[in-house]
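SAMPLE LOG
Freezer: B-3
Tube label: C17
Construct: single chain, 78 aa
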Amino acid sequence: MVRAYQKANQVLKSECGMLQRQLFEQKQWHADCAERWSLEREGLVWDKDQAEARAAVAEEELRAALEELDAIRGRIDQ
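STRUCTURE (predicted):
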């Protein structure tokens, strides 16, 4: 009888540990989502791919602006 209670107690502790781990993972996931959404609301990036894509767009815009500036300087020099 005592062994049955010990076994049941051991199973409950194991299940409790598993549930605590799942709860921690869910809390972490929700915190990560909240952080990501906060960054997105502020127009900031969340991941490396998104950062690289935005950097490529910014680089292309800068290149176009420099070409336009060179064209303006060329007209001024004439």
